[in-house]
Amino acid sequence: MLNNEFGQLIRQARKEKGYSQRDLAALIKLDFTYLSKMENNRAEYAPKEEVIRKIAHHLDIDPEELIYLAGRIPHQEEALLSEHYKSMPMLFRRMRENPEFAQKIFDAAQDGQ
Prior knowledge:
The protein is mainly alpha-helical.
C-alpha cells in the first residue's frame, strides 16, 4: 500500500514542473491511468524501483525518499536488512516505545549526510 504522501508529493512536484499526467507518464513510459492511481492513492501495488527512480529524476525528488514513501526498500539497503533481519523488529519496537531514542537515531542519520 502506498503512503498517502507518495501520491501528494508526485502530484505537487508534477504540477510545479508544469507536466500533465500524460506528459509525465510519457516521459517515464508508464500508462497515465496508473500514474493517476498513484497520485490518488488508489494503486493496488507500488511501482518498481526503476519506475520510482525515473519519476524522481523527472520531478527532481530524492529517489530514496520516494522509494520509502512507496513502501519499498531500495536495492542497496536489502543486504543490510538481510544481515540484520532478526534485530529489526526489536529496533522498531524500541523506537516506537521510546520516541527520544528514535529521535537520536534520526538525528544521527541526518548528521551523517
